[in-house]
Task: structure prediction
Amino acid sequence: MKGLEKIIPLDGRDIKVVLQKFAPQAAGSILISSGETAVLVTANRAAPREGIDFLPLVVDYEERLYAAGRIPGGFLRREGRPPEKAILIGRLIDRPLRPLFPQWLRDDLQVVATTVSLDENVPPDVLAVTGASIAVLLAQIPFNGPMAAVRVGLVGDEFVINPTYKEIERGGLDLVVAGSPDGVVMVEAGANELPEADMIEAIDFGYEVIQDLIQAQRDLLKELGIDIVKAEPPAIDPTLENFIYDRAVEPVKAILKRFEKDKNVRDAALDEVQGAIAQDIAALPEDHPVAVAAAENPKALPTLFKAVTKKLMRQQIIEEGVRVDGRRLDEVRPIWCEVGVLPERVHGSALFNRGLTQVMSVTTLGSPADAQALDDLHPEDSKRYLHHYNFPPYSVGEVKPLRSPGRREIGHGALAERALEPVIPPKEEFPYVIRVVSEVLSSDGSTSMGSVCGSTLSLMDAGVPIRKPVSGAAMGLIKEGNEVRILTDIQGIEDFLGDMDFKVAGTDSGITALQMDMKITGLPVAVIKQAIEQARPARLHILEKMLAVLDKPRPQLPPSAPRLLTLQIPPDMIGLVIGPGGKTVRGISEQYNVKVDISEEGLVTITAPNETNAKQARAAIEGLTRKLNAGDVYLGRVTRIIPIGAFVEFLPGKEGMIHISQLAEYRVGKVEDEVKIGDEIVVKIREVDSKGRINLTRLGIHPDEAEAARSSAVF
Result:
């Protein structure tokens, strides 16, 4: 079964698609590749389950280590729980797909993307996004596509499409843009303080290329004789709809006009109106058309009531320019911040409040051994800056069982990590591994950007010398026909009933992270430009409030933080420091109560509970790796005695021998008469012979030399 093969030219980095060859029982399948990276994407559809009132779309991204010619580690030697990167790519595929399905669709949908071959130059994620669109179209699922995605990098001063891993690492931009025929539908970006104008240009550059990918998909479908399915929404009983609408409009409008700032009060008032309508329906005779329609569709009341609330909220914003809490469209909610909110045992902490959203961020400093090892298909093998995000049920006043982090928590943590990564000091300046945990204590919109703000303060409270503080704001959108309104600092109801959630984070110099998700089928770049530009004054306003509390990193690390010292040793001396079976480094660690990490390049990092221990351990390693010269004087310890002399360890792992004739100015008849095992004695190096053997003496040592050796002893 050969299938259909097509090449899509793309800015010198062609994409190859193979259709109707792999996974023949899937409703839609495609192998999409570029270079030696290949992703198999399938799409399937099943009949709707009874009682479902949402779109049950599942998007899974799988990585197989055979794609990079590797065998998994661990006892089972097979892939297990997906790594964080795979979860993030799954979200990346889901986010531009989801808004393009009709929201009334209730069929079970599943898209599975599996990377089956990996080229070290070609990331698989954007291939998977474009492949998902083709697979869905081949499966004949109702879809407002085609949709495609590209990555935009910055090499020098030039934007490039689908850069290699190395180009992404060296450049100042990693931007993924997804688009449909109606416009941009998703943006995900990390940047090194890129100015707003440059970011807008990059998005526009990416969307222009997306047009070619969209047209290529249309050409493929035409060649196969497949039409894009555009299904009609199910009819709603007009009698029930009018009944609910007549009873909901005025009370809901009155509630929205109160400009209530507490969402709990507003939600309770709306629930009361909905409850009253439910009672009105229940009081009707069983054979009344409204009662019959409500009985046949129990989900109709909440669905239609939500539609009324959504329409009136949006109408108020479009026509009056006023939001449900009374704010102007470009106004940020009240902000207050506090640092050092936890006892000093915690290395750094901060509380960030914006309206009813509250995030507590906590910083912990660790040694290089605490870095996160990464076992996935991508080149990065470890991370020294970790950002984790938790969203407990009490943050929205709910009762739910606590579970391990889900996709949303992992995604929000990754976004905050990306926003702060550009300002984290390099390990050469600050060798600590840094973990920040953001605990969402109360949620009413924009918790991810609250995490960015709180974490900036927490890092500075811990004394981490970040280059610049970072703040963030979430922008929203209301679009009715040709009327568009951009909202600054959206709250929960505006996210829930609006058309866009656009998170923008950065310093006062430029953007460090972007994430845009849509609920409509696309936006022109001009509207995105307006949102990015409107976000800047909001970010700067929030940053001003933050810096009023703590304007720069604390000059000292907290007392509870471990102390790290580093030194560089020649790589050929690493084995000497480690010693046979790790004996030497283990001895240093135990003697000084420290942890010693040595990189392949010879960078030694010492982690200790206090500075004194760290300095003692560093002196021991410096001594161990020091070039030995005749005439150097040390304090040593006698380790062995033989008839012709004594062996003395004068540096950790370094021994020399004193011949019996060099033990004293006078003749020594028996070595044990002069020294015993365990004695501490001052010795001088006589010579290091051609075989590396060290000959020591106790003769000819000046008292000042002896005193200096005792004061700098590493034992």
